[in-house]
Amino acid sequence: MSKSTKKQVEESKETKNPHLDLVDRGISKLIDIPGLFMLEHLVRLTMSHNKIDVLPAHIVELKNLESLNLFNNHIEELPTNMSSMPKLRQLNLGMNRLYTLPRGFGSFTKLEILDLTYNNLNENSLPGNFFFLDSLQALYLSDNDFEVLPKDISKLQKLEILAVRDNDLISLPKEIGELNKLRELHIQGNRLTVLPPDLGKLDLYTGRAIMKAENNPWVPPIADQFQVGVSHVFDFIRSETYVYLYGRHVKAEAAPPPKSNNKAKKTSRREIWGKK
Question: Is the pTM of this model over 0.90?
Answer without folding.
Answer: yes
